[in-house]
Amino acid sequence: MGDPEAERSSPVSEEDRPVSDPPSDTARGLPKGWPKHLLLFLATLFSVFLIGALNVVPLPETIDELGLLLHGLRNIHHGWSFAVPLLAILVTHEFGHYFAARYHGVPASLPYFIPLPLPPFGTMGAVIAMRGRIRSRNALLDIGAAGPLAGMVVAIPVLVIGLLQSEVKPVSGAGMLEGQCLLYSAIKVLVVGPIPAGHDVFLTATAFAGWAGLLVTMLNLIPVGQLDGGHIAYALFGSRQNRLALVLHGLLLGVFAYNLVTFNDVAPGLVWLVWFVLLLLLRRASGVNHPPTEPGPLSPRRRWVAAACLLLFAVLFMPTPLRQQLAWLEPALPPAELLF
Fold this sequence. Notes:
The protein is mainly alpha-helical.
């Protein structure tokens, strides 16, 4: 990005100066709310460790819901190989947004992590609250793109390390099939090599965390509304993005319908239905159109960044993120070593 001070003082980069409305006293005092953010992070840490333990620790043949919970709690320390890399990806993603917002003088909260002690991830990610209007298209692009790009810097090495630990085995019995995308398929071929017919890569928990990082980035890059992709597309296309977003929002239902017809099951495409409803609620709460920026062009180098982010969405797109059941992740330790 070059020297920050040079950019801020350049007479032709007026939009690179602080570009939000002046922060309020509340915004200046954001660090005072750190206990709430810490509590949510610790709750998320617990829930991701719990789900991670259930991913890597072999389950008894018969177990009820209470037994499943107790089994996870007893072995929660074994969840680190999933929880640590996944949270590293999420934390890096959110602080990418945070530091980009602070650089541009936009008041931003610390991340609000969202615990969800349910498979497959144990969390719904995190959000950052920004106060005031982002007036510059350059700032909007920087803030929107910083999270996904920062997260990918961690997600790809995590995925590569996890794939190096994973084994190629014959496929047999029921299991969970992770979604495929162009980038994931290319990385698998580069790391694992050609996969024989009737075989697949049985992911370790670390590999699954890396794959989850790709999925999270893809969902955030959907060019709709207040998602990262919506910010990026608005910075690139301006108000024309509002019409494009309406079409893309509707297409989410189309992807859900595709999965429903293809697999005769709601579950494989459920994420698209959930995302459609969440975005619909957000649009009703914050308005149909993206908040406008002041007139001014997007700098040429940022146009390249925006185009790269849209291309990243394309190579990460997974029509069917998950199907079947979470049952075939390789244990991190042999069963005899999983007991207290």
